């Protein structure tokens, strides 16, 4: 019990630190970018229920998970259902078509950020109509783009972005196209300049808006994680996915039980210092 209380306190402090950094990064954005307040998605992978509840108690409402099985775990948790009635779940992992029905049955599903094909969009659309037949509310989705071109990454080839979004807008009446999402290449050195994956997503948004006559401020960008979310916000992200510096690293079943884990507050400081060093020579472009 004592350990759980200490961990909850650490999560609360770490979350407050991240929220402050999100707001500071938003204040540094060029005025030419759409003035959309960034949404923080707290990624709660494999963490104890108490930590999710503590983050919720601190005011966090948007949470993300990578696996459908994790959503089913949370949806069946009496503690989460009772303590977090306004929680909003974002699915941020690769979604296989055979798991769509399971995912869409989860209570408080707010957004699917990883639609990466026309076929998947059609499946999610038809399943949402069937699963939520009594509701007229459309499901928010983002289209995932493989901006880095890595075979290990999921997502559309960038050149298919406009045609895929056009299909969703015209053929998937149960879905609300919200924006574009990328994971991008890990470990990019910001001292070399703006992250090219983020720049790619920005350019694809511009193409979508120009080609389909959509207002720029109505197409969100989900990009940036624990190591680079501040830079992502500075160049235009409206949705950032942050996990390890709030909750700590993901815990695996075979990990050593007695391995000491640095507090989220300490991890936040370390990541912040590393990012600051990389961004010392970085100038954010306003175009």
TrEMBL record:
Recorded GO MF terms? pyridoxal phosphate binding
Could you list this entry's UniProt keywords, alphabetically sorted. Answer: Pyridoxal phosphate
Is Zinc-finger found in the keyword set? Answer: no
Which residue numbers delimit the Alanine racemase N-terminal domain? 37-249
Q: Where is this region: Disordered?
A: 251-287
Q: Which Gene3D superfamilies match?
A: Alanine racemase
Q: Where is the composition biased (Basic and acidic residues)?
A: 264-277
- InterPro entries named among the record's database cross-references: Ala_racemase_N, PLP-binding_barrel, PyrdxlP_homeostasis
Superkingdom assignment: Eukaryota
List of residues that carry N6-(pyridoxal phosphate)lysine: 45
PANTHER family from the UniProt entry:
PROLINE SYNTHETASE CO-TRANSCRIBED BACTERIAL HOMOLOG PROTEIN, PYRIDOXAL PHOSPHATE HOMEOSTASIS PROTEIN
Family under the similarity heading: Belongs to the pyridoxal phosphate-binding protein YggS/PROSC family.
Function field: Pyridoxal 5'-phosphate (PLP)-binding protein, which may be involved in intracellular homeostatic regulation of pyridoxal 5'-phosphate (PLP), the active form of vitamin B6.
What is the name attached to this protein's record? Pyridoxal phosphate homeostasis protein
Q: Which gene encodes it?
A: PROSC
